[in-house]
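Async update (no meeting this week)

Hi team, since we skipped the sync, here's where things stand on the single-chain job. The sequence we agreed to prioritize is pasted below, unchanged from the tracker. I ran it this morning and attached the output directly underneath so nobody has to dig for it. Comments welcome in thread, and please keep replies under the output.
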Amino acid sequence: MLHVDVKRARRPAEIAVAAGVVWLAGISPVPGVYLEPDPGRRLAMLRKGRRSWVVGQHVAAAGTAAMPAAFARLALALPAGRPRTLVGTAAVALAAGAPLFISQLAVRASDLERFAERRLPGWPFLSYAWLHVLALGSLSGALAGLPDKE
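Output:
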């Protein structure tokens, strides 16, 4: 039977939660910018909040980079078997997607006009998003395979 050392797994899980909070804090420094349909108004919003926008992109990049490491540590905290393999798969998917999104964050921070006009290539973000879906599916499979009781 699979035995999970909860104490050993808790720290990487806490790091993953913290990375998610950091990502969320960084991704939303200019309220409403993602929902604004008019490129001119979007650009005005970004220019008005330029400092917080640029800092936010860096903060989001830090959260994006920390998440795969947290998942890798979580996988290593699990005993060998299917849950470890699935969490490891999630870590690999997140690690593959992180550079794609971080590159988008760099362009968002350095070229407000391109971002406001939605002229960034879509494939890096879409790839990142689908790799996240894979990671969440793998994590869900790992959690479903954990024992009911200690």
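Quick observations from my side:
DSSP finds six helices and no strands in the chain.
The longest helix spans residues 82-110.
Reply here if anything looks off.
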